[in-house]
């Protein structure tokens, strides 16, 4: 993995810093765009006075099945870190199902064999067609295949989305699904929803930001401990009336008959966690798998056959049993730098820490080289982010500035979570404040990088805060009879900025002949800035020598 010194690009005399503004895209309209509405004089100035282009950050440009698929942090950071586009989980699972490959694997065999010995087969995961963490079609295909294979009893534990799909769309999925289950049910096939709750309330925590979420999910799904309802529909309607929260924040519920939960998880059962994306799948998988487990009081661990849709962590091999082989993301930028003696520094707050480490390094949680890599996590607040839209951007900047000034690192990367995490709340004013907070930090950081003779790249992994109102099919903001907009909590299909900031006359310019450039072109650019040629098969660099 030896890199060759570039004959056209001298190494930047100072550090090269990639600044990922998570969830900050470039929208073609003004309406509902918190990025444009925010007063961000510094970002505006950088964009206007330094070389800038737009990068594709969604769809096939990041390995998703189609160009209707929005981008997300996993595919975005994978593309940044790998310098190439790999077919991603969404695509690999869909292909494995349509080719029938999934049903031939050992993991599926184990799951079916367990259920046929009398255990219940449980499917647990994010219940929508968002295609960021999961897709409801994958779930349906598995239920049908289980029925065909002669499984007698299936229970579903549904995590309501409202973050990758409309913020109050849960019933658009639940109601037709109940009708679908009615059609499947027969005397020898018993299938029902057994539990559920909002994805930001139960089960889908990530990066150990808040284990209590996972505990609440465990109690609901496994132990059947929680408020009881006759159906998911009833639970959703009741909680909406009582709490007025959007789907992702709905409390957990247990479906019960005569006071008895319909589907607790017990010895001899099989459990399939059907999300393909790993960040929010790791903690619940650990809870099912680890014999020694301290994050929360689980009670006796039920002896189940547990399978993930994919293997979520390539380093820790978690979980050991999985249905679809994850993409083999090899020869990442991080690995090249580590093996060529370039010191690296990665920083974010908890909510995005794994994005600049684990996703960036091709879904591996470990370092390539302890000695030359430093990873810093600033603990995130555990509050609704519309209440603290500045999040930890100031603290991250404090640490990053110190790292830049230290002169110890040749390559640094940071993820600022604000545009995305606040964008997901659907709160326009908070998203505007998030952007303004971020702008203040850029005004602190960029001058230090320049002072150190460094180069800064400002970019993003996908859009979010750039579209805070729901759009109709034509791309116009939807308004009801009173002219009110509906909040949009999901990512967008918009491109993202790429701004290259360095001292005068750096000796290179942005290429103009890459109209389809995307996130995967950034890695080669970074290598050029560090004075290396990009390795074989990396997507082309965005710069050329002058
Ligand atoms: O919060 C998340 O899990 C996703 C949206 O589902 O966002 P991101 O891809 O930005 O992490
Ligand atoms: Mn993101
Ligand atoms: Mn997001």
Automatic annotation (TrEMBL):
Cofactor(s) essential for the protein: Mn(2+)
What organism is the protein native to? Methylomonas albis
Q: List the keywords (alphabetical).
A: Glycolysis, Isomerase, Manganese, Metal-binding
Transmembrane regions: none
Molecular function terms from GO? phosphoglycerate mutase activity
**Family indicated by similarity:** Belongs to the BPG-independent phosphoglycerate mutase family.
Q: Which PANTHER family match?
A: 2,3-BISPHOSPHOGLYCERATE-INDEPENDENT PHOSPHOGLYCERATE MUTASE
- Name the Gene3D superfamilies on file: Alkaline Phosphatase, subunit A, BPG-independent phosphoglycerate mutase, domain B
- Which named protein is this? 2,3-bisphosphoglycerate-independent phosphoglycerate mutase
């Amino acid at each position: 993995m030896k890199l060759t010194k570039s004959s056209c690009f001298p190494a930047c005399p100072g550090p090269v810093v990639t600044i990922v503004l998570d969830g900050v895209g470039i929208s073609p309209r003004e309406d509902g765009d918190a990025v444009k509405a925010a007063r961000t004089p510094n970002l505006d100035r950088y964009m206007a006075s330094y070389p800038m282009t737009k990068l594709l950050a969604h769809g096939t440009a990041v390995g998703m099945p189609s160009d209707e698929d929005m981008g997300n942090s996993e595919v975005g950071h994978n593309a940044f870190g790998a310098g190439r586009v790999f077919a991603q989980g969404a695509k690999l699972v869909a292909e494995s199902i349509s080719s029938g490959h999934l049903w031939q694997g050992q993991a599926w065999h184990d799951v079916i064999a367990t259920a046929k010995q009398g255990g219940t087969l449980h499917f647990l995961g994010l219940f929508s067609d968002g295609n960021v963490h999961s897709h409801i079609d994958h779930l349906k295909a598995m239920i049908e295949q289980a029925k065909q294979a002669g499984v007698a009893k299936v229970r579903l534990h549904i995590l309501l989305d409202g973050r990758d799909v409309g913020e109050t769309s849960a019933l658009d999925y639940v109601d037709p699904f109940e009708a679908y289950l009615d059609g499947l049910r027969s005397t020898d096939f018993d299938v029902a929803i057994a539990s559920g709750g909002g994805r930001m309330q139960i089960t889908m925590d990530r990066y150990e930001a808040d284990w209590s979420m996972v505990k609440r999910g465990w109690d609901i799904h496994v132990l059947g401990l929680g408020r009881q309802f006759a159906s998911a529909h009833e639970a959703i309607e009741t909680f909406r009336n009582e709490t007025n929260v959007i789907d992702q924040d709905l409390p957990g519920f247990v479906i019960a008959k005569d006071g008895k939960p319909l589907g607790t998880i017990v010895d001899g059962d099989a459990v399939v966690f059907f999300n393909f994306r790993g960040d929010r799948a790791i903690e619940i998988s650990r809870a099912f798998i680890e014999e020694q487990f301290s994050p929360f009081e689980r009670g006796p661990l039920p002896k189940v056959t547990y399978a993930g849709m994919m293997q979520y962590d390539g380093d820790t091999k978690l979980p050991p049993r999985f249905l679809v082989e994850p993409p083999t993301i090899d020869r990442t930028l991080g690995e090249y730098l580590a093996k060529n003696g370039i010191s690296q520094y990665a920083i974010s707050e908890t909510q995005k820490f794994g994005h600049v480490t684990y996703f960036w390094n091709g879904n591996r949680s470990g370092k390539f080289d302890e000695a030359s890599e430093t990873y810093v996590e600033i603990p995130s607040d555990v509050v609704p982010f519309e209440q603290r839209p500045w999040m930890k951007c100031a603290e991250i900047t404090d640490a990053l500035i110190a790292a830049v000034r230290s002169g110890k690192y040749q390559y640094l990367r940071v993820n600022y979570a604000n545009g995305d995490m606040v964008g997901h709340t659907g709160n326009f004013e908070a998203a505007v404040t998030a952007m303004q907070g971020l702008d203040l930090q850029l005004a602190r950081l960029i001058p230090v990088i320049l002072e150190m003779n460094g180069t800064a790249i400002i970019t993003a992994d996908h859009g979010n805060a750039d579209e805070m109102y729901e759009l109709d099919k034509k791309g116009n903001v939807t308004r009801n009879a009173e002219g009110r907009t509906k909040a949009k909590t999901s990512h967008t299909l918009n491109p993202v900025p790429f701004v290259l900031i360095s001292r005068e006359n750096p000796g290179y310019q942005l290429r103009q002949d890459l109209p389809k450039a995307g996130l995967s072109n950034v890695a080669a650019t970074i290598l050029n800035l560090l004075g290396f040629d990009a390795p074989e098969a990396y997507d082309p660099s965005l710069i050329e020598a002058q």
